[in-house]
Amino acid sequence: MPEDFRCYLVTREGDRVTAGITRRPMSELPTGDVLIRVQFSSVNYKDAMAATGNPGVARKLPHVPGIDAAGVVVESTRADLPVGTEVVVTGRELGVERWGGWAEYLRIPGEWALRRPQALTLEDAMTIGTAGFTAAQCLLAVRSHGVRPPDGDIVVTGATGGVGSLAVKLFASQGYRVVAVSGKADKHEWLRQLGAAEVIDRSAVLDSSSRPLLSARWAGAVDTVGGAMLASVVKGTLHRGCVAACGVVGGPELPLNVYPFILRGVTLAGIDSAWCPEDRRRVIWELLSTSWKPNDLAVQRTVVDLDQVADVVPKILAGEVSGRTVVRVATEND
Length: 334
Prior knowledge:
Blueprint: E1 4-13, E2 16-25, E3 34-43, H1 45-51, E4 68-76, E5 86-90, E6 105-108, E7 114-115, H2 122-144, E8 154-156, H3 162-173, E9 178-181, H4 188-194, E10 198-200, E11 218-223, H5 227-235, E12 237-245, H6 259-263, E13 267-270, H7 278-288, E14 301-305, H8 309-317, E15 324-328
Parallel strand pairs: 8-9, 8-11, 9-10, 11-12, 12-13, 14-15
Antiparallel strand pairs: 1-2, 3-4, 3-6, 3-15, 4-5, 5-7
């Protein structure tokens, strides 16, 4: 076992936050009964926030971002996770309270580790990652509420992002007619390739008026934006429809009244991926590796090395990245 490991570390010097690739001693890893040699991670919006030292995500500095990780167990005290087991880790405290996947090694409580689903490679698992897991929870929420493909369109906001693009793929694969919302005109054809039946500009959805209800258009929705966009989607949802809310890039405030809920019976379903119960988490990953497995995941991802993560962070924060960015943590010499 090496004495130190390579990682992307966020630190604070006085009032200044700095971040970059460095090496840290193995003794600095958190406690846990499983040590993982990380092969792949990913870049999520939350990771980009952590990489800038945002205190709402990186609770304590120094910090290693990465809410997703996939790799091989190299030390373990658990009989169910022997050395050599390939595992996937998403959510919980990873990359937030605890150092995350942007590092060669990761030490965690063993119950956080999921054996790699047989039908997925580690790279595929990180292409799905928290984003795909979140999109799958949105699909479960809409289906559990009774919304089926014949009931009408599913609108997906922020459709070019990680969660949005995988939601387009997932819902389309299950027979829903998906309307993708994006302000990126150059990505409309790509969204159609993912399965969107229609692609519209966000200006066609966003309503800045104070009207309590809008013309009903959607049987269900996946909103990755929040704020005024989420309010517009809720106000435009059909009777007994369901809106799954999972994002906040448009702001945490919700300028909304109760009329969509008491006149149309709309359900607003909040999606929390970090602390999804263990039994439900395993069911969702089983679905994502079998009947819900997204096809052609290579089209969904861009792969970068750990050295290139710093270039991706500002692009993620500026909304300039489409699909999923997978981080190759392991080097060719590993």
